[in-house]
């Protein structure tokens, strides 16, 4: 038997429902009109009427509380669903630029022919001349740490071999050339003092 929306909601929230009365035939007589206040006052004692009125008020309050509970619960569910949908929409909108950029890059990759592997870059021709001068402090340290009778002389010879280049760098104001020259000279001077 199909149930109404109200009965479905009551069943969902555990509110007791009353079974529908059997449909009266079309030719059934119209319901009797409710008794008037005078009839009620004369047919029932005042205490019973007050008790009946109190029961009716309690029933009205219960119905109103049920209604408020239904409205509140559904409102909370609707608010939560609305926030979830909003978060999802904002997330999709935030991903749209990334998706468009990715599609554009994929399209460019499809259109470009396969490029041959790039050849390894050749070393600059001046690197072989510059590297020994830059590495001169490490070269001198390695010679002096050997502590052979000729270590100081070998270190002096290595410094003299690169002295013209160092002097040219210092004169041209190459960044760091002055410090490099001073470091090498200090290493030789210290080795001479301890020899």
Automatic annotation (TrEMBL):
Pfam families: VPS51_Exo84_N (PF08700)
Domain of life: Eukaryota
Biased composition (Low complexity): 16-30
Segments for region (Disordered): 1-41
Protein name: Vacuolar protein sorting-associated protein 51 homolog
């Amino acid at each position: 038997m199909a149930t109404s929306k109200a009965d479905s909601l009551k069943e969902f929230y555990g509110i007791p429902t009353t079974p529908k009365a059997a449909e009266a035939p079309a030719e059934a007589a119209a319901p009797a009109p409710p008794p008037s206040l005078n009839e009620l006052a004369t047919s029932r004692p005042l205490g019973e009427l007050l008790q009946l009125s109190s029961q009716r008020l309690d029933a009205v309050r219960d119905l109103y509380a049920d209604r408020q509970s239904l409205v509140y619960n559904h409102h909370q569910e609707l608010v939560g669903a609305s926030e979830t949908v909003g978060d999802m929409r904002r997330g999709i909108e935030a991903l749209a630029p990334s998706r468009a950029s990715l599609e554009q890059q994929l399209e460019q990759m499809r259109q470009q022919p396969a490029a041959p592997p790039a050849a390894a870059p050749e070393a600059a021709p001046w690197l072989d001349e510059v590297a020994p001068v830059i590495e001169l402090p490490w070269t001198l340290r390695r010679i002096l740490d050997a502590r052979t009778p000729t270590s100081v002389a070998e270190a002096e010879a290595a410094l003299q071999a690169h002295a013209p280049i160092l002097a040219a760098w210092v004169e041209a104001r190459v960044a760091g050339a002055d410090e490099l020259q001073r470091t090498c000279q200090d290493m030789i001077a210290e080795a001479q003092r301890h020899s």
